[in-house]
Amino acid sequence: QVHLVESGGGLVQAGGSLRLSCVPSGSIFSINYMGWYRQAPGKQRELVAAIASGGSTNYADSVKGRFTISRDNAKNTVSLQMNSLKPEDTAVYYCWVRAGPVDYWGQGTQVTVSS
User: Fold this and answer.
1) Per-residue pLDDT, 101
2) What does each of the 115 residues of the chain score in pLDDT, given as a tens digit?
3) Among 13, 29, 57, 67, which is most buried by a count of CB atoms within 10 Å?
4) In sequence order, which residues have a C-beta less than 8 Å from that of residue 35 and are 6 or more positions away?
5) Quick check: helix, strand or coil at residue 60?
6) 3-class DSSP state for residue 88?
7) For residue 55, with 0-12 CB atoms within 10 Å meaning exposed, 13-18 middle and 19 or more buried, which class applies?
8) Which CA distances in Å does 19 have to 43, 85, 102, 103, 106?
9) What is the pLDDT of residue 74?
10) Helix-strand-coil split of the chain, %, nearest 5
11) 33 with 51: CB under 8 angstroms?
12) CA-based R_g, the chain, Å
């Protein structure tokens, strides 16, 4: 079974930057979308950013202008560059891949932004 392996989370001060990366443990074919969700304590999981196979992107309003999603179609990797981080960005971030009718999820990586 293919898993998504995330890296890059951690603790950063407000205004700082982090870069998250995600790579599948095996081959995934016919990927439509890749992206990142996040879940803060006591809140629902929300979409942060997504990128389609053709390159079009979608961002949550709260991160527009601060976060940038990118993907490497050859390697099936997806990254999230997070700049100007705020304490409200603190959450567990999950990598997500949709291939046809199947959704793949990573185990999550903690991002903590201190004020």
Assistant:
1) 95
2) 889 999 999 999 999 999 999 999 999 999 999 999 999 999 999 999 999 999 999 999 999 999 999 999 888 899 999 999 999 999 999 999 999 999 999 999 999 999 9
3) 67
4) 47, 48, 49, 50, 51, 58, 69, 78, 95, 96, 97
5) coil
6) helix
7) exposed
8) 23, 11, 26, 23, 16
9) 85
10) 5, 55, 35
11) yes
12) 13
- Written as one string, the DSSP assignment of 17-34 is -EEEEEEESS---SEEEE
Backbone phi, psi, residue 50, to 5°: -145, 155
CA count, 13 A, side-chain hemisphere, 29? 0
CA distance 25 to 77: 10
pLDDT for the residue numbered 34: 97
